[in-house]
Amino acid sequence: MDRWRNGSLLFVPVTAAVPLARGGGAPAPASATLGLIAVVVLVPVIAAIVIALCAGWTRTLLRRRRASEARLRAAATIEAAARARMSELCPHGWRAQLTLFGADDELGAGAPPGAAARVALDWAEFDDADGHIAIVRRVWAPTIGEALEAMVADRRTDETLERIERSAPVWPD
Q: How much is the pTM?
């Protein structure tokens, strides 16, 4: 082996032969090298798949949460509107009671045929400030919101009929 100095660098020529695989060409990679290549390639792919799945699950959970919050806000709005309207329609006050029936429960008297109406709303209008009850009614509906709306519609019908009775002429006997 020849060694010589050129300035401050030492040059050493490489003369060792690299063993070649059969058939000539590049040497065969060792199994450790193949394992390292597999890890370097597969880990980012698996990580990307996991991140995509987590993003989809998170998006689904957020959508469900927003939808349930929207349903709660809608129910609260329906209830507040029904309370306000009933307070306008019943100047001396009113009271309501909701009764919910399960799928296996026997429906009360006067229930409409079919299994759709599972909410009974009993409401009463007070006649005077002393709390004497003037009207007691029951409405049936499939949901609480629909029962509240049916109660308001029932009271509006009563008010319309009362207005018609007051404006009708009295017939002599």
A: 0.58
